[in-house]
Amino acid sequence: MVAITPDILVVFAVILVALAFFATEPVPVDVTAIGVMVSLMLIQPASEALASAGMLGAPIVLFESYPGDALSGFANTATLTVLAMFILSEGVQRTGIIQLLGAKISTFTGDSELRQLGATVGVVGPISGFINNTAAVAILLPMVTDLAERGRTSPSKLLLPLSYASMFGGMLTLIGTSTNILASDVYSRITGEAPFTMFEFTALGAVVMVVGVIYLMTIGRRLTPARIEPRRDLTEEFEMAEYLTEVVVREDSPLVGQQVQRALVETEFDVDLLQLIRGESVFLEPLGPKEIQPGDVFTLRTDRNTLVELLDVEGLDLVPATVTEDELELADRGQNLVEVVVAPGSALVGESLASASFRQRYDATVLALRRGGELIRRRMDNLPLRVGDTLLVQATVESIERLDNNRNFIVAQEIERHDYRESKIPVAVGIVAGVVALAALDFLPIVVAALLGALAMVATKCLRPTELYDAVQWDVIFLLAGVIPLGIAMENSGAAELLAELVVMTGDYLPLIAVLGVFYFVTALLTNVISNNASVVLMIPVAIEAATTLGADPFSFVLAVMFAASTAFMTPVGYQTNLFVYGPGGYKFTDYIRVGGPLQLLLGVVTTLGVAYFFPLT
């Protein structure tokens, strides 16, 4: 039995604190990861100082090369490969090829929910094998919501399968998800074996995807709830009838002659001005500088009690009519009302609409906010935003296009865009195919091929140089850089070996394939609470130590951990794609357990048996 040393206790303490922070997210996970890295860097010199003062028997050594090992996450091949893959995915996205594919799909799905579901999972799965699956869901989400709208289907029936199918697809190739790339690097570094090849586990991934798709098309389809009714109107979907109204300015109103900003915006009332109707003209933001005239009709977002106060004080009369989506899109007969999802890594996470100056910055008005199944339609300005929050936004066509181009948001409806580089479709697809071929043929290491492909995207003008930095999800990069040193510290301290010994004890009572299953389910449960990349870093060293002790092939155990870490179905926080669809689908937390629980159990059995079938356990 491995002796419990101060080094091990310190590493376990850091892990427990990190797990608590990952699970509760008082700060973003990437900040937690950097905090872990900095903490590990401080422990070693602090312990040396205490040992020199006679307060500690021996210094705590977590890194053989200090501080190089602690900072190695930034220069790690996995980190750089993931960074390059974000750029490759962006290059493909900018061509509009996936949007064109979605438009063609809608022509034959019609109003059949089964065909819509089949098209959704059938498209996102294969695509997620070759571009980052998180990016695939972000690109396809507007297509799927429009597919549901045109077919009179609840978007809730399609969006959760969209997320799950992207995870299946991510397991088809090495580049399907950052978790695969990280797992390959950790395995190679610990064992000294070659990293995974491009299609090394594709056969197993295909089996998992087929079984998963069959589940979603049958049992999962029945379990997936229709939380949002098929919408005729966004104002109906967000139940805005009691919060939208029109008022007309009377001749004797004290507001006449005043600027809108001073008279109606900078007030104590919980009121948002959506549009001004003056004669035959309709005006949207910015309304602040306009001077109020008798007969002006304002469309407002407010509650009934505030409206009564406003009518009493400001000399306004109520217009007795229901405000619909069509009326909110009178300004230029364009698409002025859309759902906007707060994206992972958004600068607005933790900010409120007021602190982010949302209205002023984007010339857009938020009418309502949906967080899972909860609808918020009043006092929203000071509510901290979270990833997956869905905002009902009214703005001009130009402002909506700017929101669609902004990496902080995902516009959940397809909007007409004119900046796709369709002429570059063959070039972008060819570059990705070239990267896959170079890596698959082992002509170049995957990191070199991916970086070469990223450079080619710029050289061929599929991407502009200024778009490179926006293409990268920097929170994922910093998360990887921060957690990689934790895995190194686990190995060097003996913490991984100790945990492995505890798991190996089950080998006295369970067959080897059952121990493999234990690793899958423990990793799956962990991943549903914390980051998938953090799960890989924590579990792979333990899996390799356990396999070695049991006389098994570490590769098989690493595959079980990797597949489990890439398929977190039971919570909205387990995987970024689950958060993407949480707000637009109107889901409850329990929906993920209801639909994802049986799927997790099914794929746990399939993956464990599949690993044993395709790869020898000993």
UniProtKB/TrEMBL annotation:
Q: Which GO terms describe its cellular component?
A: plasma membrane
Membrane topology recorded in Swiss-Prot or TrEMBL: Multi-pass membrane protein
Chief site of localization: membrane
**Record keyword Membrane present:** yes
Q: Name one GO biological process term.
A: potassium ion transport
Q: Which residues cross the membrane?
A: 33-63, 70-88, 117-141, 162-183, 195-217, 427-459, 471-490, 502-523, 555-575, 595-615
Q: Name the UniProt key words of this record, in alphabetical order.
A: Membrane, Repeat, Transmembrane, Transmembrane helix, Transport
* Localisation: Membrane
Full protein name: Arsenite transport protein
Species per Swiss-Prot/TrEMBL record = Haloferax gibbonsii (strain ATCC 33959 / DSM 4427 / JCM 8863 / NBRC 102184 / NCIMB 2188 / Ma 2.38)
